[in-house]
Structures are given as C-alpha cells and as structure tokens.
C-alpha cells in the first residue's frame, strides 16, 4: 500500500490498536488511521485513549502522534482512538475540491502545471503554473465548472500503480516535489475523478484541444478524498493572487464558508439591482454604461479644468526677471500633472518662463521654460524658501509640500 492508511480508508474514524512506544507526549501505535500532515493537507484531530491529539506527523513512513498531555496508558496497552469526523470530512471535501478545480483548469488554461496546494480552515489554495492570464471571467468559468462537476456526482477512486506506468501517462498531474506522500517503493497512488456521474450519464464537456470525452482529473496524491463529488458540497472560487514567478494562486472555500461567500456576493448583487433600478440580469450592462458615462464626465471635467488654467494664465500680467519674461498665476481644483501640461504648452509661446501654483491636497508649484532658464533651478529656489521637495528637467520641474500658500509662492518670484 502506498502512503497513509487514512488515505486508503478515509471513512474510518474509530479504531482500537496497541500502543507500541511512548516518549513523553509522543505516541506510536501498531495501526493508525490518523492522517499525518503532508502535501498541504493538515493533520487529523481526535483522541487516543481519551487524550487529545495535538498533532500527527508522518515521518519515514511512521505516524508520530503528539498528544496535548502525557498519557496515563502504557506501552502494550490497547487504546480506543477517535478521529474528529467533522474536520476529517472537511479535509476530504476540500482536497477533492482542489482536484476538481485542477480538472477545470485542464479545460480552460494553457500549458497547465501543478505547483501545490494548502488546506486551511478558512479556504483552500491551489497553485497553478499556466501561461493563461486568469482574469475575473476565467475565475467565473472555473467556479461554474467546479460546481457543475460537484452536481454531476462523479465517482472518485484511488489506486496504487507502478511509478513508471504513471510517468508515461499524459493525463496524470504528476509532481513528486509537492506530493511526496503519494510515492513509496516504486509505486504511486493516483486519485481519479471519473468521467460519468453516479447514474452513468456521460458528461458533455470536452478537452480544450477538442479531444474525446475523458476523465475529469487524474493526479498523484497521498491525501484523503470523498468517494463521490456530490459529497464535496458547496464550493465558491474566491479569487487569485501571484505567490511567485510563473504561479497563479486560486483560492476557494468549501462548505459553510462557501455558503457565507455566496451570501455576501448575492447581497452585493441585490443591492446593485436596487440602486440601479434594473433587473439582476441587466445590472452588469448598466454598470458598464455608468462607468462609461463617468469616464466621459471625468474627461470633460479635466478638459474644463485645463481651459480654466489656460484662461487664468493668459489673463495673468507678465513680469521681467533676470532679463527674461515670466508669467505666473495660481490655480484651483487643478492637480500638478494637469498644470504641468498647461505650463509646458505655454512656455516659449506666452513667456520664457511659466509658473503655476496650486493646492491639490498640498501646495505645489510647476515651472516650465523655453530652455533659457533652468526650471530645476527655479524649483530649488522655491524649496529653499518654503521647504518641501521636487525635481524635474531643465525645461519642466515641479515641487510640493511647501509651507506656504500658492499666492505666497508666486510672490517670492515677483519681488
């Protein structure tokens, strides 16, 4: 048998066995159905002889049971062992759900490879290697396929096969680095999610490459699994992140937390429907329309602000400084970047040096020149006088964080 006895008989949660060794809180048993933490799946919880199990480690093919307190039972004594069924079943469901997700990835993602997974009480994460960008639309497709496979009641089976045979199969997700517990003495444990549902109805989905109908997923795995996908229950794909180069992490929730997430998403959808006054199926289109309108309004406001800045600049009285013509004015509701565009266009046309000062969150100044005067030198003069900081080039520079109003900033230039 390859791997842990718990993986071969995951529905066994009560058993009696002999204690073979004790070292403080560490206990060895003749036979153990406890799952030792391995490959991203946490250790089982439960009791041995009435003492709580704090951890189970799988070391060199043996289970080391770490108890919460030193036991009163002795070596050679038979003890009753009880595994926490609720947590065991959660891990079985979560682990199977990760395989279902990978099977969905086979059909949606290019150049797919397996980078590992992890089960926590809050969520399950699956690391995928793929050249496909997993955007929101792809996440929705993954979520749909996962839940469809759960609904279809596909059988889940496991078997030990020679490693050499498994290596030759293109349909096996094979990663010895992340699934060390699946390999033993030249054999590997394969977990298969079948192609038919419990009633023998063939599934209509096909591989991305257009090939014939196939098993949903086959993977080298040493973890515990349910016997049928219908036992997985509610699943919700939560999101994605990038944990490292070449990897995309997809996270999902199983059971009550999946239901909670569905409820939160439903509340948002219903609130959007009420706010927009549109049927639920039209909310997305209405949001797209409002987003487009907002972008148009933003562009219009930006254009009006620019026109206002240009008008203020054209109405400002020019003055001479160091033999060059300067023009300067203050602005309202115009940020430094917009002011920089206006000043650059006016420099050399309206005056040799153009200075615009405003207060968008904090006082700033923008200086543009035709090259006769260094804009950086003017900004340095202002920061020496009023603090703050900035920089730029010889023809365009800006600074901010001044301890002065825009009017005070310009006044020092026109002395």
UniProtKB/TrEMBL annotation:
Domain of life: Archaea
Keywords (A to Z) from UniProt: Aminoacyl-tRNA synthetase, ATP-binding, Coiled coil, Ligase, Nucleotide-binding, Protein biosynthesis, RNA-binding, tRNA-binding, Zinc
Protein family according to the UniProt entry: Belongs to the class-II aminoacyl-tRNA synthetase family.
GO annotation terms (biological process): alanyl-tRNA aminoacylation
GO-annotated molecular function: alanine-tRNA ligase activity; aminoacyl-tRNA deacylase activity; ATP binding; tRNA binding
Coiled coil: 280-314
Name used for this protein in its record: Alanyl-transfer RNA synthetases family profile domain-containing protein
UniProt xrefs under Gene3D superfamilies: 2.40.30.130, 3.10.310.40, Threonyl-trna Synthetase, Chain A, domain 2
Segments traversing the membrane: none
Domain Alanyl-transfer RNA synthetases family profile, first and last residues per copy: 1-264
InterPro entries, sorted: Ala-tRNA-synth_IIc_core, Ala-tRNA-synth_IIc_N, Ala-tRNA_ligase, DHHA1_dom, Thr/Ala-tRNA-synth_IIc_edit, Transl_B-barrel_sf, tRNA_SAD
């Amino acid at each position: 048998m390859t791997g842990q006895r718990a993986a071969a008989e995951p529905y066994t949660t009560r058993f009696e066995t002999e204690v073979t060794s004790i070292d403080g809180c560490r206990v060895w048993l003749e036979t153990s159905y406890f799952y030792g933490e391995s490959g991203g799946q946490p250790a089982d919880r439960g009791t041995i002889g009435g003492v709580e199990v704090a951890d189970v480690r799988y070391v060199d093919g043996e289970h080391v049971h770490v108890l919460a307190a030193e036991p009163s039972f002795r070596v050679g004594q038979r003890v009753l062992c009880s595994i926490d069924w609720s947590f065991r079943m959660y891990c079985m469901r979560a682990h199977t759900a990760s395989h279902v997700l990978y099977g969905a990835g086979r059909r949606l993602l290019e150049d797919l490879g397996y980078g590992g997974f992890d089960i926590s009480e809050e969520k399950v994460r699956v690391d995928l290697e793929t050249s496909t960008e997993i955007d929101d639309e792809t996440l929705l497709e993954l979520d749909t396929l996962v839940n469809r496979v759960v609904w279809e009641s596909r059988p889940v089976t496991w078997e030990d096969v020679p490693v050499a045979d498994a290596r030759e199969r293109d349909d096996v997700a094979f990663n010895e680095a992340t699934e060390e517990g699946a390999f033993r003495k030249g054999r590997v444990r394969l977990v298969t999610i079948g192609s038919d549902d419990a009633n023998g109805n063939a599934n209509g989905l096909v591989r991305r490459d257009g090939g014939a109908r196939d098993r949903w997923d086959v993977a080298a795995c040493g973890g515990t699994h349910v016997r049928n996908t219908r036992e997985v229950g509610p699943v919700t794909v939560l999101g994605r992140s990038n944990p490292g180069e070449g990897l995309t992490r997809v996270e999902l929730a199983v059971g009550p937390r999946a239901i909670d997430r569905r409820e939160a998403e439903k509340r948002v959808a219903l609130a959007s429907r009420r706010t927009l006054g549109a049927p639920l199926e039209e909310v997305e289109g209405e949001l797209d329309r409002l987003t487009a309108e907002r972008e148009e309004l933003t562009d219009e406001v930006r254009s009006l602000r620019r026109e206002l800045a240009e008008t203020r600049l054209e109405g400002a009285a020019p003055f001479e400084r160091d033999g060059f013509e300067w023009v300067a004015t203050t602005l309202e509701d115009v940020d430094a970047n917009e002011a920089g565009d206006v000043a650059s266009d006016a420099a050399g046309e309206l005056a040799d040096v153009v200075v615009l000062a405003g207060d968008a969150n904090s006082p700033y100044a923008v200086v543009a020149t035709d090259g006769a005067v260094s804009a950086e030198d003017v900004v340095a003069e202002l920061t020496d006088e009023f603090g703050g900081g900035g920089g730029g080039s010889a023809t365009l520079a800006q600074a901010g964080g001044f301890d002065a109003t825009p009017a005070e900033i310009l006044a020092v230039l026109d002395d």
